Amino acid sequence: MGTTTKKRNVRAPFRADHVGSFLRPERLKKARAQRENGEITAEELRQIEDEEITKLVEKQKEVGLQAITDGEFRRSWWHFDFLEGFDGVEGYTPDKGLQFTGTETKKRGIRVTDKIGFSSHYMIDHFKFLNGIVGDAVAKFAIPSPNMLFFRGDFEDGVYASDEEIINDLIAAYQGVIQALYDEGCRYLQIDDTSWAIFFSDKGRASMIGKGKDPEKIAELCARAINESIAKRPEDMLVTMHICRGNYKSTYMSSGSYEALSETIFGGLDVDGLFLEFDDERSGGFEPLRHVKRSDLYIVLGLVTSKFSELEDPEQIKARIAEATEYVPLEQLCLSPQCGFASTEEGNLLTEEQQWEKIRHVIKIAEDVWK
């Protein structure tokens, strides 16, 4: 599965790419709050979302991006909002939020009350709108990995008898929604996944063992969930994966090198490209990339942080790219920020202009490296 390297060179992932989410404009934040308070209708909010996404699309094209997203402007969370679109899944308010380094998110959770399935999904319309306004650019759509429901969902008693049953239904549901997105014109799909980071640290593995789970077996199930979910995608649909360690108000959730699961990630996933965090010491070095054996697997190096406004020394970024070529050829490498700018609607701690400076920085460095 996959396209040739020659074809991929003029397609996604691009030399200068991005993870997808952008800071929400104040007008949009205000409108969402008004809708929550019943001050405006759903239709009025939708109109404002449409207008702000249209502006965002033009801005992305203006700064020189080739992959264009809707910034996840219609979402509150990068994952919960999408996962609630499956049959058998609903949102709820738990007792506490998710724990990040030094902070806690607002309270939001998802639970599985019945068998997981796909009959329709409201975000297909979100992609249709984006695809209708990008012009000759490439519309990129990001969805959470099936593993996120497996790890983040609270499963009611009696719904599933085993992890394998859960994974089987997740695969079927994802095959359905991926085909539906393709039918509407999606040719560049990104799967976002923070679950792999659990395997990167002793603490994460210990937490699984404490719940009676075998980390090696769970890792195999997670890899299977990805591979079988995308196994039926058409040849001209490119699928990348972003592996993240958490991104909330410029904080993170976990640390650890890719080494602990490097053979699975770099040698066992059937994606076309991997967006990887490498912006600080929490991600370790490039040595795990030695397990990249495919000439058609693109590695997008997240060397520019989206968490803070300071611009990295371009020469240091170029030196790190050169270091990565010890393991992966330059023609298989790309550059991006390490994550999006607003994985939740609160966003990271920088301004919109600083956000665009980061994007321009990525593009300029990429132009210098891949002349």
From TrEMBL:
Residues 18-345 form the Cobalamin-independent methionine synthase MetE C-terminal/archaeal domain. Its EC number is 2.1.1.14. It is an enzyme of class 2 (transferase). The keyword Ribonucleoprotein does not apply. CDD domains: CIMS_C_terminal_like. It comes from the Bacteria. The keyword Transferase applies. Keywords: Methyltransferase, Transferase. It holds the Pfam family Meth_synt_2. NCBIfam families: PRK06520.1 (NF005085). This is 5-methyltetrahydropteroyltriglutamate--homocysteine S-methyltransferase. The lineage of its organism: Bacteria, Bacillati, Bacillota, Bacilli, Bacillales.
